[in-house]
Automatic annotation (TrEMBL):
Family matches, as PROSITE patterns: THIOL_PROTEASE_ASN, THIOL_PROTEASE_HIS
Gene3D superfamilies hit by this protein: Cysteine proteinases (3.90.70.10)
InterPro entries: Haem_Oase (IPR002051), Haem_Oase-like_multi-hlx (IPR016084), Haem_Oase_decyc_pln (IPR016951), Papain-like_cys_pep_sf (IPR038765), Pept_asp_AS (IPR025661), Pept_his_AS (IPR025660), Peptidase_C1A_C (IPR000668), Peptidase_C1A_papain-like (IPR039417)
Species of provenance: Brassica cretica (Mustard)
UniProt KW Disulfide bond keyword: yes
Protein name: Peptidase C1A papain C-terminal domain-containing protein
Residue segments, region Disordered: 1-27, 45-65
Domain Peptidase C1A papain C-terminal residue range list: 183-400
Length: 401
Protein backbone atom coordinates (compact mmCIF):
# COMPACT_ATOMS: atom_id res chain seq x y z
CA UNK A 1 0.00 0.00 0.00
CA UNK A 2 1.31 3.41 -0.88
CA UNK A 3 0.37 6.65 0.82
CA UNK A 4 0.99 10.25 -0.14
CA UNK A 5 1.64 12.81 2.57
CA UNK A 6 2.38 16.50 2.41
CA UNK A 7 4.55 18.09 5.06
CA UNK A 8 5.68 21.63 5.82
CA UNK A 9 9.20 22.14 7.21
CA UNK A 10 9.60 25.33 9.28
CA UNK A 11 13.06 26.56 10.18
CA UNK A 12 13.65 26.68 13.93
CA UNK A 13 14.73 30.32 13.77
CA UNK A 14 11.60 31.45 11.94
CA UNK A 15 8.47 32.36 13.90
CA UNK A 16 5.38 32.27 11.64
CA UNK A 17 2.77 34.99 11.93
CA UNK A 18 -0.42 34.22 13.85
CA UNK A 19 -2.46 33.99 10.63
CA UNK A 20 0.03 31.45 9.19
CA UNK A 21 -0.25 29.31 12.31
CA UNK A 22 -4.00 29.07 11.95
CA UNK A 23 -4.09 28.31 8.24
CA UNK A 24 -4.61 24.64 7.52
CA UNK A 25 -3.02 23.13 4.44
CA UNK A 26 -5.17 20.56 2.63
CA UNK A 27 -3.56 17.58 0.84
CA UNK A 28 -3.02 18.48 -2.80
CA UNK A 29 -4.05 22.13 -2.31
CA UNK A 30 -0.82 23.55 -3.74
CA UNK A 31 -1.45 21.84 -7.11
CA UNK A 32 -5.08 22.88 -7.55
CA UNK A 33 -8.51 21.76 -6.44
CA UNK A 34 -8.66 18.70 -8.71
CA UNK A 35 -5.62 17.36 -6.85
CA UNK A 36 -7.51 17.84 -3.56
CA UNK A 37 -10.32 15.67 -4.97
CA UNK A 38 -7.76 13.03 -5.93
CA UNK A 39 -6.50 12.89 -2.34
CA UNK A 40 -10.06 12.38 -1.10
CA UNK A 41 -10.46 9.53 -3.58
CA UNK A 42 -7.19 7.98 -2.42
CA UNK A 43 -8.33 8.11 1.20
CA UNK A 44 -11.60 6.43 0.25
CA UNK A 45 -9.87 3.52 -1.42
CA UNK A 46 -7.09 2.97 1.11
CA UNK A 47 -7.42 -0.68 1.93
CA UNK A 48 -7.64 -0.96 5.68
CA UNK A 49 -10.33 -3.61 5.64
CA UNK A 50 -9.53 -6.98 7.18
CA UNK A 51 -8.91 -9.70 4.64
CA UNK A 52 -10.42 -12.75 6.24
CA UNK A 53 -9.51 -16.17 4.86
CA UNK A 54 -12.22 -18.70 4.33
CA UNK A 55 -12.25 -22.16 5.86
CA UNK A 56 -10.38 -24.89 4.03
CA UNK A 57 -12.63 -26.64 1.56
CA UNK A 58 -12.59 -29.41 -0.98
CA UNK A 59 -11.23 -28.89 -4.48
CA UNK A 60 -13.84 -27.36 -6.80
CA UNK A 61 -15.65 -29.62 -9.23
CA UNK A 62 -15.01 -28.68 -12.82
CA UNK A 63 -18.14 -28.02 -14.84
CA UNK A 64 -18.67 -26.69 -18.37
CA UNK A 65 -20.68 -23.47 -18.36
CA UNK A 66 -21.71 -20.87 -20.89
CA UNK A 67 -19.99 -17.50 -20.92
CA UNK A 68 -21.99 -14.30 -20.57
CA UNK A 69 -23.21 -12.61 -23.71
CA UNK A 70 -24.93 -9.21 -23.86
CA UNK A 71 -28.66 -9.09 -24.61
CA UNK A 72 -30.80 -6.35 -26.11
CA UNK A 73 -33.17 -6.41 -23.11
CA UNK A 74 -30.31 -6.03 -20.66
CA UNK A 75 -28.75 -3.22 -22.65
CA UNK A 76 -32.06 -1.36 -22.88
CA UNK A 77 -32.39 -1.48 -19.09
CA UNK A 78 -28.84 -0.11 -18.88
CA UNK A 79 -29.74 2.81 -21.18
CA UNK A 80 -33.05 3.64 -19.50
CA UNK A 81 -31.47 3.88 -16.04
CA UNK A 82 -29.00 6.43 -17.43
CA UNK A 83 -31.41 8.33 -19.69
CA UNK A 84 -31.48 11.47 -17.57
CA UNK A 85 -27.70 11.82 -17.78
CA UNK A 86 -27.18 12.18 -21.52
CA UNK A 87 -29.22 13.35 -24.50
CA UNK A 88 -27.40 10.82 -26.65
CA UNK A 89 -29.04 8.00 -24.72
CA UNK A 90 -32.42 9.25 -25.93
CA UNK A 91 -31.11 8.87 -29.50
CA UNK A 92 -30.12 5.27 -28.79
CA UNK A 93 -33.50 4.44 -27.27
CA UNK A 94 -35.36 6.01 -30.20
CA UNK A 95 -33.37 3.82 -32.59
CA UNK A 96 -34.21 0.67 -30.60
CA UNK A 97 -37.88 1.71 -30.58
CA UNK A 98 -37.80 2.05 -34.38
CA UNK A 99 -36.46 -1.50 -34.58
CA UNK A 100 -39.53 -2.76 -32.71
CA UNK A 101 -38.07 -3.21 -29.22
CA UNK A 102 -40.17 -2.37 -26.16
CA UNK A 103 -38.51 0.26 -23.98
CA UNK A 104 -38.61 -0.67 -20.25
CA UNK A 105 -39.46 1.65 -17.38
CA UNK A 106 -36.54 3.01 -15.31
CA UNK A 107 -35.76 1.11 -12.12
CA UNK A 108 -36.31 2.80 -8.76
CA UNK A 109 -32.54 3.28 -8.15
CA UNK A 110 -32.13 4.77 -11.62
CA UNK A 111 -34.94 7.29 -11.02
CA UNK A 112 -33.69 8.09 -7.54
CA UNK A 113 -30.18 8.85 -8.74
CA UNK A 114 -31.39 10.93 -11.69
CA UNK A 115 -33.56 13.02 -9.36
CA UNK A 116 -30.65 13.37 -6.96
CA UNK A 117 -28.47 14.85 -9.72
CA UNK A 118 -31.26 17.23 -10.79
CA UNK A 119 -31.77 18.49 -7.25
CA UNK A 120 -28.04 18.82 -6.73
CA UNK A 121 -27.61 20.85 -9.92
CA UNK A 122 -30.36 23.28 -8.90
CA UNK A 123 -29.53 23.69 -5.21
CA UNK A 124 -25.80 23.08 -4.87
CA UNK A 125 -23.74 23.90 -7.98
CA UNK A 126 -20.33 23.34 -6.37
CA UNK A 127 -21.30 19.89 -5.13
CA UNK A 128 -22.84 19.02 -8.50
CA UNK A 129 -19.66 19.96 -10.36
CA UNK A 130 -17.56 17.71 -8.13
CA UNK A 131 -20.03 14.84 -8.26
CA UNK A 132 -20.37 15.01 -12.03
CA UNK A 133 -16.63 15.36 -12.62
CA UNK A 134 -15.91 12.15 -10.71
CA UNK A 135 -18.82 10.02 -11.88
CA UNK A 136 -18.61 11.04 -15.53
CA UNK A 137 -14.97 10.18 -16.00
CA UNK A 138 -14.69 7.36 -13.47
CA UNK A 139 -17.69 5.30 -14.56
CA UNK A 140 -19.63 6.58 -17.57
CA UNK A 141 -16.48 6.71 -19.68
CA UNK A 142 -15.91 3.07 -18.81
CA UNK A 143 -19.26 2.23 -20.36
CA UNK A 144 -17.55 2.49 -23.74
CA UNK A 145 -16.36 -1.07 -23.27
CA UNK A 146 -19.94 -2.24 -22.68
CA UNK A 147 -21.05 -0.35 -25.76
CA UNK A 148 -18.32 -1.91 -27.89
CA UNK A 149 -19.29 -5.43 -26.86
CA UNK A 150 -22.99 -4.73 -27.41
CA UNK A 151 -22.27 -3.33 -30.86
CA UNK A 152 -20.11 -6.32 -31.80
CA UNK A 153 -22.31 -9.10 -30.41
CA UNK A 154 -25.92 -8.02 -30.93
CA UNK A 155 -26.03 -4.95 -33.20
CA UNK A 156 -23.98 -6.13 -36.18
CA UNK A 157 -21.29 -3.55 -35.49
CA UNK A 158 -23.58 -0.48 -35.42
CA UNK A 159 -21.71 2.38 -33.75
CA UNK A 160 -23.63 3.70 -30.75
CA UNK A 161 -24.02 7.46 -30.32
CA UNK A 162 -23.46 7.39 -26.56
CA UNK A 163 -19.90 6.09 -26.93
CA UNK A 164 -18.70 8.62 -29.50
CA UNK A 165 -16.24 11.21 -28.20
CA UNK A 166 -15.28 14.51 -29.79
CA UNK A 167 -11.54 14.07 -29.53
CA UNK A 168 -9.21 12.07 -27.29
CA UNK A 169 -10.62 11.28 -23.86
CA UNK A 170 -7.30 12.04 -22.13
CA UNK A 171 -7.22 15.55 -23.63
CA UNK A 172 -10.88 16.15 -22.77
CA UNK A 173 -10.18 15.16 -19.18
CA UNK A 174 -7.17 17.49 -19.01
CA UNK A 175 -9.25 20.39 -20.34
CA UNK A 176 -11.96 19.76 -17.75
CA UNK A 177 -9.37 19.59 -14.96
CA UNK A 178 -7.93 22.95 -15.97
CA UNK A 179 -11.38 24.56 -16.10
CA UNK A 180 -12.38 23.11 -12.73
CA UNK A 181 -9.17 24.36 -11.12
CA UNK A 182 -9.87 27.82 -12.55
CA UNK A 183 -13.47 27.87 -11.30
CA UNK A 184 -12.46 26.64 -7.84
CA UNK A 185 -10.05 29.56 -7.42
CA UNK A 186 -13.12 31.72 -6.70
CA UNK A 187 -14.58 29.34 -4.10
CA UNK A 188 -14.28 29.83 -0.37
CA UNK A 189 -12.64 27.12 1.71
CA UNK A 190 -16.07 26.16 3.02
CA UNK A 191 -17.38 25.70 -0.54
CA UNK A 192 -14.36 23.59 -1.45
CA UNK A 193 -14.82 21.37 1.61
CA UNK A 194 -18.48 20.87 0.75
CA UNK A 195 -17.44 19.87 -2.75
CA UNK A 196 -14.94 17.36 -1.36
CA UNK A 197 -17.73 15.78 0.69
CA UNK A 198 -19.62 15.22 -2.56
CA UNK A 199 -16.48 13.71 -4.09
CA UNK A 200 -16.67 11.15 -1.29
CA UNK A 201 -20.19 10.18 -2.43
CA UNK A 202 -19.54 10.21 -6.15
CA UNK A 203 -16.34 8.17 -6.07
CA UNK A 204 -18.35 5.23 -4.81
CA UNK A 205 -19.49 4.82 -8.41
CA UNK A 206 -15.92 4.23 -9.60
CA UNK A 207 -15.32 1.66 -12.34
CA UNK A 208 -12.28 -0.12 -10.83
CA UNK A 209 -14.43 -2.46 -8.72
CA UNK A 210 -13.81 -5.40 -11.09
CA UNK A 211 -10.13 -5.45 -10.10
CA UNK A 212 -10.92 -5.50 -6.38
CA UNK A 213 -13.46 -8.28 -6.84
CA UNK A 214 -11.10 -10.44 -8.89
CA UNK A 215 -8.18 -9.90 -6.49
CA UNK A 216 -10.31 -10.73 -3.44
CA UNK A 217 -11.34 -14.01 -5.08
CA UNK A 218 -7.74 -14.93 -5.88
CA UNK A 219 -6.62 -13.95 -2.37
CA UNK A 220 -9.26 -16.25 -0.92
CA UNK A 221 -8.10 -19.07 -3.18
CA UNK A 222 -4.51 -18.43 -2.04
CA UNK A 223 -5.57 -18.74 1.58
CA UNK A 224 -7.31 -22.05 0.87
CA UNK A 225 -4.46 -23.47 -1.23
CA UNK A 226 -1.49 -22.28 0.85
CA UNK A 227 -2.92 -21.66 4.29
CA UNK A 228 -1.68 -18.06 4.39
CA UNK A 229 -3.21 -14.84 3.13
CA UNK A 230 -1.24 -12.75 0.62
CA UNK A 231 -2.38 -9.25 -0.31
CA UNK A 232 -2.34 -9.09 -4.11
CA UNK A 233 -2.16 -6.12 -6.46
CA UNK A 234 -5.35 -4.53 -7.80
CA UNK A 235 -3.15 -1.86 -9.37
CA UNK A 236 -1.46 -4.41 -11.62
CA UNK A 237 -4.84 -5.37 -13.04
CA UNK A 238 -5.85 -1.73 -13.53
CA UNK A 239 -2.58 -0.97 -15.34
CA UNK A 240 -1.92 -4.17 -17.24
CA UNK A 241 -5.15 -6.13 -17.91
CA UNK A 242 -5.75 -4.42 -21.25
CA UNK A 243 -7.16 -3.97 -23.86
CA UNK A 244 -10.07 -6.19 -22.77
CA UNK A 245 -10.42 -4.18 -19.56
CA UNK A 246 -10.21 -0.41 -19.24
CA UNK A 247 -8.50 0.31 -15.92
CA UNK A 248 -10.43 2.61 -13.57
CA UNK A 249 -12.96 3.14 -16.35
CA UNK A 250 -14.41 -0.37 -16.18
CA UNK A 251 -13.73 -4.04 -16.78
CA UNK A 252 -14.79 -7.60 -15.99
CA UNK A 253 -13.53 -10.15 -13.50
CA UNK A 254 -13.29 -12.80 -16.22
CA UNK A 255 -10.87 -10.66 -18.22
CA UNK A 256 -8.91 -10.06 -15.02
CA UNK A 257 -8.60 -13.80 -14.44
CA UNK A 258 -7.53 -14.30 -18.06
CA UNK A 259 -4.80 -11.70 -17.60
CA UNK A 260 -3.48 -13.45 -14.47
CA UNK A 261 -3.33 -16.74 -16.40
CA UNK A 262 -1.55 -15.24 -19.43
CA UNK A 263 0.83 -13.27 -17.19
CA UNK A 264 1.62 -16.44 -15.25
CA UNK A 265 0.57 -14.83 -12.02
CA UNK A 266 -0.24 -11.60 -10.20
CA UNK A 267 2.12 -9.63 -7.97
CA UNK A 268 1.72 -8.93 -4.27
CA UNK A 269 0.47 -5.51 -3.22
CA UNK A 270 3.85 -4.79 -1.62
CA UNK A 271 5.58 -5.35 -4.97
CA UNK A 272 2.96 -3.42 -6.97
CA UNK A 273 1.18 -0.95 -4.62
CA UNK A 274 -2.20 0.67 -5.17
CA UNK A 275 -2.33 4.23 -6.61
CA UNK A 276 -6.10 4.83 -7.14
CA UNK A 277 -5.55 5.71 -10.79
CA UNK A 278 -4.40 4.08 -14.01
CA UNK A 279 -0.68 3.97 -14.70
CA UNK A 280 1.77 2.35 -17.09
CA UNK A 281 2.12 -1.40 -16.73
CA UNK A 282 4.99 -2.41 -14.44
CA UNK A 283 5.92 -5.60 -16.22
CA UNK A 284 8.93 -6.34 -13.98
CA UNK A 285 6.86 -7.01 -10.86
CA UNK A 286 7.39 -10.57 -9.62
CA UNK A 287 4.20 -12.73 -9.60
CA UNK A 288 3.01 -13.66 -6.11
CA UNK A 289 0.19 -16.08 -7.01
CA UNK A 290 -0.70 -18.08 -10.11
CA UNK A 291 -4.01 -19.51 -11.30
CA UNK A 292 -4.71 -21.93 -14.14
CA UNK A 293 -8.04 -20.46 -15.21
CA UNK A 294 -11.52 -19.64 -13.98
CA UNK A 295 -15.02 -21.06 -14.00
CA UNK A 296 -18.33 -19.29 -14.51
CA UNK A 297 -21.18 -20.22 -12.18
CA UNK A 298 -24.38 -21.18 -14.05
CA UNK A 299 -26.45 -18.05 -14.53
CA UNK A 300 -29.54 -17.21 -12.48
CA UNK A 301 -29.02 -20.12 -10.13
CA UNK A 302 -28.50 -19.27 -6.46
CA UNK A 303 -28.13 -22.96 -5.58
CA UNK A 304 -25.19 -23.26 -7.97
CA UNK A 305 -23.74 -20.06 -6.52
CA UNK A 306 -24.11 -21.51 -3.02
CA UNK A 307 -22.17 -24.62 -4.05
CA UNK A 308 -19.37 -22.48 -5.46
CA UNK A 309 -19.18 -20.17 -2.43
CA UNK A 310 -19.06 -23.17 -0.10
CA UNK A 311 -15.70 -23.97 -1.70
CA UNK A 312 -14.12 -20.53 -2.19
CA UNK A 313 -14.81 -16.79 -2.64
CA UNK A 314 -16.65 -15.94 -5.86
CA UNK A 315 -16.55 -12.70 -7.88
CA UNK A 316 -20.01 -11.40 -8.83
CA UNK A 317 -21.50 -8.50 -10.72
CA UNK A 318 -24.40 -6.68 -9.07
CA UNK A 319 -26.68 -3.68 -9.48
CA UNK A 320 -24.83 -1.41 -7.08
CA UNK A 321 -25.85 2.15 -7.97
CA UNK A 322 -29.00 2.51 -5.92
CA UNK A 323 -29.10 5.07 -3.13
CA UNK A 324 -29.95 2.44 -0.54
CA UNK A 325 -26.96 0.33 -1.61
CA UNK A 326 -24.54 3.24 -1.59
CA UNK A 327 -25.66 4.28 1.89
CA UNK A 328 -26.00 0.75 3.29
CA UNK A 329 -24.77 0.56 6.89
CA UNK A 330 -25.90 -2.74 8.45
CA UNK A 331 -28.38 -5.60 8.42
CA UNK A 332 -29.54 -7.92 5.66
CA UNK A 333 -29.95 -5.81 2.52
CA UNK A 334 -33.40 -6.50 1.09
CA UNK A 335 -34.25 -4.11 -1.77
CA UNK A 336 -36.26 -5.86 -4.50
CA UNK A 337 -36.28 -2.63 -6.52
CA UNK A 338 -32.48 -2.40 -6.76
CA UNK A 339 -32.76 -3.93 -10.23
CA UNK A 340 -30.60 -6.45 -12.06
CA UNK A 341 -28.57 -4.21 -14.39
CA UNK A 342 -24.96 -4.90 -13.42
CA UNK A 343 -23.02 -1.74 -12.55
CA UNK A 344 -20.67 -2.89 -9.80
CA UNK A 345 -18.63 -5.90 -8.65
CA UNK A 346 -18.13 -7.46 -5.22
CA UNK A 347 -16.82 -10.76 -3.88
CA UNK A 348 -19.08 -13.28 -2.16
CA UNK A 349 -16.99 -14.71 0.69
CA UNK A 350 -19.64 -16.57 2.67
CA UNK A 351 -23.29 -17.02 3.52
CA UNK A 352 -25.54 -17.45 6.54
CA UNK A 353 -28.83 -16.53 8.17
CA UNK A 354 -29.81 -13.70 10.51
CA UNK A 355 -31.27 -14.33 14.00
CA UNK A 356 -34.68 -13.87 12.36
CA UNK A 357 -33.89 -16.62 9.85
CA UNK A 358 -33.32 -14.37 6.83
CA UNK A 359 -30.76 -16.02 4.55
CA UNK A 360 -27.97 -13.84 3.17
CA UNK A 361 -24.80 -13.69 1.10
CA UNK A 362 -21.78 -12.12 2.79
CA UNK A 363 -20.09 -9.89 0.21
CA UNK A 364 -16.84 -7.96 0.43
CA UNK A 365 -16.96 -4.52 -1.20
CA UNK A 366 -14.07 -2.27 -2.28
CA UNK A 367 -15.16 0.95 -0.57
CA UNK A 368 -13.26 0.63 2.71
CA UNK A 369 -14.20 -0.19 6.29
CA UNK A 370 -16.30 2.93 6.78
CA UNK A 371 -18.92 1.55 4.39
CA UNK A 372 -21.44 -1.09 5.43
CA UNK A 373 -20.45 -3.62 8.06
CA UNK A 374 -16.72 -2.87 8.11
CA UNK A 375 -16.54 -3.04 4.32
CA UNK A 376 -18.97 -5.94 3.91
CA UNK A 377 -22.65 -6.25 3.03
CA UNK A 378 -25.17 -8.99 3.72
CA UNK A 379 -27.36 -9.44 0.63
CA UNK A 380 -30.63 -11.34 1.01
CA UNK A 381 -30.28 -14.88 -0.37
CA UNK A 382 -32.79 -17.25 -2.02
CA UNK A 383 -35.14 -14.59 -3.34
CA UNK A 384 -38.17 -15.25 -5.53
CA UNK A 385 -36.58 -14.16 -8.82
CA UNK A 386 -33.82 -16.22 -10.50
CA UNK A 387 -31.29 -13.38 -10.91
CA UNK A 388 -30.94 -13.00 -7.14
CA UNK A 389 -30.94 -9.84 -5.03
CA UNK A 390 -29.53 -7.00 -7.16
CA UNK A 391 -28.71 -9.56 -9.86
CA UNK A 392 -26.09 -11.32 -7.72
CA UNK A 393 -26.65 -14.68 -9.45
CA UNK A 394 -26.32 -13.42 -13.03
CA UNK A 395 -22.59 -13.10 -13.61
CA UNK A 396 -20.48 -15.01 -11.10
CA UNK A 397 -17.05 -16.57 -11.59
CA UNK A 398 -14.16 -17.89 -9.54
CA UNK A 399 -10.45 -18.58 -10.18
CA UNK A 400 -9.01 -22.08 -10.36
CA UNK A 401 -5.60 -22.86 -8.86
Amino acid sequence: MSTNKTSVVIAATTAPAASEKQKKRYPGESKGFVEEMRFVAMKLHTKEQAKEGEKETKSPEERPVAKWEPTVDGYLRFLVDRLERSEKLAIELEWFKEQGYEIPEPTAPGKTYSQYLKDLAEKDPQAFICHFYNIYFAHSAGGRMIGRKVAERILDGRELEFYKWDGELSQLLQNVREKLNKVAEEWTREEKNHCLEETDKSFKYSGGCWAFSAVAAVEGLTKIARGNLVSLSEQQLLDCARPDNNGCNGGTMQNAFNYIVSNRGISSEDAYPYKVKDGSCGSNAKPGMQITGFKDVPQNNERALLEAVSRQPVSVGIAGRGDSFIHYSSGVYNAPDCGTTVTHAVTIVGYGASPKGIKYWLAKNSWGETWGEKGYIRLRRDVEWPQGMCGVAQYASYPVA
